[in-house]
Amino acid sequence: MSNFANTTPFASNPISNKSELAQYLIGLLDPLASHTSPGGARVHLGFTGTHYDEAAAQLEGFSRPIWGLASLLAGGGSYPGVERWVRGFANGTNPDHEEFWGNMRNKDQRMVECSAIGFALAVAREHIWDPLPAEGKRHLEDWLGGMNDKEMPNTNWLWFRVFANLGLSKVGSSRFDAKRMKADLDHLDTFYIGDGWSRDGPEGVVQLDYYSSSFAIQYAQLVYSKLAQKEDPERCEEFRNRARKFALDFVHYFDEEGRAIPFGRSLTYRAAMSSFWGALAFADVELPAPLTWGAVKGLQLRNLRFWARQAGAYNVDGTFTIGYCYPNHNMTENYNSPGSPYWFCKSFITLALPESHPFWASPEEPYPAALLTTVKPLYKPLHIATNLGGHTYILSSGQQCSYPVKQSAAKYGKFAYSSAFGYSVPSGNLTLEELAADSALALSEDDGETWKVRRDTREARIEDGKWLHSMWYPWKDVSVETWLVPPTAEVPLWHLRIHRIKSGRKLLSAEGGWAIYGQGPDDRALEPSTGEAFGTLENGSEARAASKAGVSGIAELRQNSSRRGRAMRTDANTNLMVPRAVLPTLMDEHQPGQGDIWLVSAVFGLPSRNGENGAAPGWEAEWKKRPVIPQEIAVLMA
């Protein structure tokens, strides 16, 4: 039977040039028409809730597609449906209209949506602002300017007010507050920590995720550097300099097939993860070697092509689902409405560029060869990035969200995050299958009734550029010291995790490798296999799973270990990439008072490539190899 369900309306689009990218965007905009209110001001895409009100949720559905629409119009394109948004601006900002969005309060979600609106006024004035009647213009500028005296979160949100004022300035509005915009920019600059990186907040905030780049800060800095060059040249040049430094780190979060490494929160924004590359082009940044415009073009367009092929990212009418590679509310945040995924449209910013721009004029190039087969310490985010052996991933320590976020331990606390295998989020905490502890060490003090994983990481550092070293404390009388050692040229498909546990209580432990697609060639659950065919393997203190997605495995390196391997079938819909996954896991029991407990886990991963059915031939020989414990750590173990 043909796989009729695993297709999208966009998969046949090559997305290789500007007109094809515009076609993709139009294919996303068109389905919104039937979900748009009569007055045009609200887009209702579903009935799920958020921590903010329904009017703000429907404003999200209206505003976020504008990132793409405004770019299309700014670059000389046209779209008949633009009149829906012009009507929506007039009615949504009119206090006497039934579709009025409501005035902004302190820390209001409506503030977030002002960034796309300000961008649209700045780059597509003649299409968005000029057609409005005088009353509509007055209502829109009053509504946007209404945020200038409101309290905002001390985060990337301040950029949203900057963009509102930027838009107001570009249309000559008296509601433009230059003093407010400068104060916001000056404060945002205090988030900068060097090497191109900014925190998403003041000192003490430690997560450095996609909000520090494509979702917000880097993207906003680059757009500002283009639009405010005449008024604020010194700051704009500083923003471009930051981007040049940042790009040489950020490129390591992408693989040769265009996938970005899933890490952190808000991943339902999907292709927005790659929008930094388009913003580099929009800002006309002079690229640092080895990046070229052909390479940047490839990074951006390959990511968009990847998402164009993901059937689970779309409803049957072509609107976005909430989730990652398929509908999955379990991995989302309480601020994700059905309209939230349209932050995706930030990645269409290159539509604002002329065909003569080097981004479009340069032939697309593959991932830079100089950056392949590398291991690179990334000191600001406390990551070690690698693509040795054809597997792109990061080792991670030292990050956690500075405020409560659903599934934060999974989003920030895992030991590793892969572009191919993604990561998993728990569906519960009463079984290991629910916990789905891939790339994590799970501990239980109650005989497996409940489990804890690393969430609050302390004393994290990269030691001599060689490995990540950190401490974490699941209970007051339990400490875990963890070393994460990247792969080497001798064993490119393995990385090491070494743990020293000091415990005053009895514990069960379960450590997971990579979660991998868990179905066989007949699309039924993988079965045990000792040969080279697809299947699972449980052999003493090692476990493995092989499927069309590649191979994942984990093995204990200490001799005479009591750990036992298990190829565990995790609960459905826990992994971000695939809804049915198998997780190779090592399990053990530890008694109190036995001194230091050492666990030495070698983790194996080889994804399939470019649609191949399984890992490349020869992986079995690599599986038989084992990494060596670094001498400095071996001395401690002795």
From TrEMBL:
Residues 18-367, 374-634 form the DUF2264 domain. It comes from the Eukaryota. Pfam families: DUF2264, DUF2264_C. This is DUF2264 domain-containing protein. It comes from Pycnoporus cinnabarinus. The lineage of its organism: Eukaryota, Fungi, Dikarya, Basidiomycota, Agaricomycotina.
